[in-house]
Amino acid sequence: MKNQPQTPQPQKSPLRFLPLHELHVGLGGKMAPFAGYEMPVQYPMGVMKEHIHVREKAGLFDVSHMGQAWLSLKEGIGEDGAHEKIAAALETLVPGEIQKLKPGRIRYSVLLNDQGGVEDDLMITNPLGDENRGRLFLVVNAAVKEQDFALLRTKLGEVADLTVWETRALLALQGPKAADVLARLVPDVADMPFMSMMEVEIFDSKAMISRCGYTGEDGFEISLPASKVEALAQYLLDHEDVAPIGLGARDSLRLEAGLCLYGHDMNSETTPVEANISFAIGKRRREEGGFAGAEKILGQLRDGASKLRVGIKPEGRAPAREGTEIQSPDGATIGIVTSGSFGPTFGGPVAMGYVNEPHTESGTDVQLIIRGKPAPAKICDMPFVAQNYYRAKK
């Protein structure tokens, strides 16, 4: 029999390695694919102990897979009001108040499509320094960064240039001991305001340090050249209070803090109102609109949305995983779990998901279909564990 021609099969793109790949392997990291990269899921300490270590001391996360980029006003548009011009351009795609963002400060926002859906969530910084007038620094999620960059270039290309930082690394140091640890190297971080950024010299290279994070704890993210990141990582890990932390604990920490994971807890078909992040919509933007999907989003702010992301507390010990059906006590399907696991600090299972509007009030009884059987649960407020972000002492 003659060989039959084979239908060509699509080739999966090879996984990309982080600049610290060899360090992760050397530390005993269990590696797995995530957002196109081979990432450490956990280290020999294990997810539970890693989680608790961050809550009590400080954990080091490699988040170099995230997308870092500069959005800059095109030459010839004029330097007068340069920040307001670049901010106004970005405001056509995000609902946040960017024009009044002060130098050195950061704002959380979302990229929107014309239907009001969230294409990604991101951090936007108005960097310090006269040389940065008319520039914004953006950090976006790894899984959709190429999509984000294409959207920004397509929608804003007439007034702005996008420069992606391909050779930068990004580390996150999180936990109540993070400031003490990092202040040994950069003393000025001790009094940095929450959601602020500054530029410093680290190991003879310019680094950008922001005070923010994804765990609910005080912490910092440090952007620096990939060629310098191993030296910084080793310096931080040499401190007795710092341990390497993988994706497993990163997920349980952010879930306890009530924070969304893009692609799971919100997506391009979810509005920021439905995702329960209406705080990302600035006061002026609520009055003026002028952003993608504004008509739908402002209508939901006014009239309410038909579904809402809520916290869910299972009453038993079994966690409700992503995709678990949520029912009313009489068995009607009212929603779905988008994130769920055991909360080590909370001391039990926690989840978040979307439920239809009549069932969104905290304290509402629901049931979760776990392994084919209904399990009682309640809608609850988030975060599940109190957030401990830094607040300046008065």
Oligomeric state of shown chains: single chain
Say what the CATH topology of the largest domain is: Gyrase A, domain 2
Q: Sum up the overall morphology in one term.
A: globular
Low-pLDDT ranges:
1-11
How would a crystallographer describe the biggest sheet? Answer: 6 strands, mixed
Q: What is the class of the largest domain in the CATH system?
A: Alpha Beta
**Total E-strand runs:** 20
Name the CATH architecture of the largest domain. 2-Layer Sandwich
Strand order of the largest sheet: 11-12-13-10-4-14
Radius of gyration: 22 Å
Give the helix level as a range of percent: 10-25%
CATH superfamily heading of the largest domain: Probable tRNA modification gtpase trme, domain 1
Terminal CA distance: 84 Å
Content of β-strand? 25-35%
Count of the separate structural domains: 2
The assigned structural class equals alpha+beta
The total of helices stands at 9
* SSE order: EHEEHEEHEEEHEEHEEEHEHHHEEEEEE
Q: Look at the structure and give the mean pLDDT.
A: 95
Descriptive notes:
- The radius of gyration is 22 Å and the shape is globular.
- It has two domains: 13-259, Probable tRNA modification gtpase trme, domain 1 (Gyrase A, domain 2); 278-380, Beta Barrel (Elongation Factor Tu (Ef-tu), domain 3), CATH 2.40.30.
- The chain is an alpha+beta fold.
- The strands form four sheets. A six-stranded mixed sheet has the order 11-12-13-10-4-14, with helices on both faces.
- Residues 1-11 have low confidence and may be disordered.
- The longest helix has 12 residues, at 145-156.
- 20% of the residues lie in helices and 32% in strands.
- The protein is built from nine helices and 20 strands.
